[in-house]
Amino acid sequence: MKKLSILLALIGLLNFDAKAQMPSDNGIMRLDEFRYPKKREIINIPNVNGLTVLKCDFHMHTVFTDGHVWPNVRIGEAWKEGLDAISFTEHVEYTPHSDDVKVGNLRPHELAKTLAAENNIILIKGTEVTRNTPPGHFNALFIQDDKNLVADRASDLDEKAIQAVVDQNAFIFWNHPGWKAAQIAGSYEWIPFVEKMYQEKKLHGIEVVNGFGFHKKALDWALDRNLTVIGNTDIHNLIAHDYDIEREGVHRTMTLVMSKDRSAEAIREALEKGNTVAWSSNYLFGKEENVRNLFHACVKFSSAYHEKTNAQGKKTKYYELSNNSDLHFELHLKQGNGTQKVILYPQSTQIITASDNQSKLTYEVVSTYIRSDQHLKVDLSL
Predict the structure, then answer these.
(1) Which of 254, 286, 318 is the last residue of a domain?
(2) Whole-model pTM?
(3) Could you point out which of 17, 82, 170, 361 has its C-alpha 20 to 30 Å from the C-alpha of 143?
């Protein structure tokens, strides 16, 4: 009985000690299980001919011009979505929130640069030269300051406005050339102002995909003049407000930059060389060489792993076509006798069948654009 009393006393002490060590909830039950998990998505795209494929968005806005979010939100979005580099490109000439925030084209950069560094996001200084359309809007990346930018939108100052960013050795691209095509006749053309910029080497690229719009003629202009192909969001709202990024396979519009390393300097070098492909979820846009190299880096075709012969003696061989990236490819057969249509979802494999006694199958990758009316063609050697 005495032993039992001692045992019960010990149990009581242990229970008391455990209760004493339990943290108090102060009358609040935490429901953190319903928060978004804090994690960074990994967008898997393999190296292309030894070059790292960086995911970049070079056109976005914050409350410091006509956007709806604070700069640090843009950093958080980029980190969560797996981007490598972004640029705040605030309007020079248009500041509708000037009564509420301290106006300055590089002010959001200054506010966000520390957070960007902490989150391993490359933050590139930029601005948007926002002239009346035509000639339209031009983004300038890698500027140094915003002291001598031209805020007056008078048409006789258009060239001066461009020269102000040229003087800073900016990388300049023409934004969304067709954005006013339905409202302003003649605005979606290769206009004399842009031709003059091109001839004077003041234009280096064209934004052929802006948000949810593919500007078809712009892609052809870029290809014909060896200008860098760019794709961006031009986001003003929250990314998750405009893009259904919770849906599998959906990403913001961006530029895939094939770069020698992950740095601002290497991005600049790659842009100047035209080593880019514009990406909008299921679609790729760019120079044929770049799109082809990207495709072959992502897609692998196996040797035949099986064959069967039908009652008529005709032999069919089986192959695997694998996509080791987070890109999406849709292929339609153009030449040969085999599987007619193949959809290569991200990180997936499909079976290809082909009749015997042929050397190759030729497919058109209809999810790619190497001109406004042309898709990449690829041969699968049998």
Answers:
(1) 286
(2) 0.92
(3) 82
